[in-house]
Amino acid sequence: MNPTAPTAAIATxxxxxxxxxxxxxxxxxxxxxxxxxxxxxxxxxxxxxxxxIGAGYLALAARIDQHHSSLxxxxxxxxxxxxxxxxxxxxxxxxxxxxxxxxxxxRYGADLTARQIGGLLGLRTNTxxxxxxxxxxxxxxxxxxxxxxxxxxxxxxxxAR
Length: 161
Prior knowledge:
Blueprint: H1 4-25, H2 39-94, H3 98-109, H4 114-121, H5 125-143
Helix pairs in contact: 3-5, 4-5
């Protein structure tokens, strides 16, 4: 007896079974053919898309034009508010004593650290930090809206002392 004969018969049976399963579960129909459109239909679709995009753009432009004047007015109000706050800051800094003005100018104008300011003026870093903290507290009180001008810790602007 040939030892490979039963193996070949088994392999043939397995392949036949797999083919049967494949025929049962795999679709037999060929994939649908793509639908072709004419050149005129293609160009009509492009024109329709352009029209829709153009209409959307025109609607957007109309909304921007509607809000343009209100946006400009808001920007003008913000600019006037900024100028008013800058003037208030300028006058509040002017009311500080000379040393505090110098420290604030070096810290926020020249962008130096407390250590650099201390080295420049011959002061300890802690002294510079405390003096800056006090100057900023006075500026906060000066620049606070009128109902909040009274500070619970007793920090009053220089002019009110």
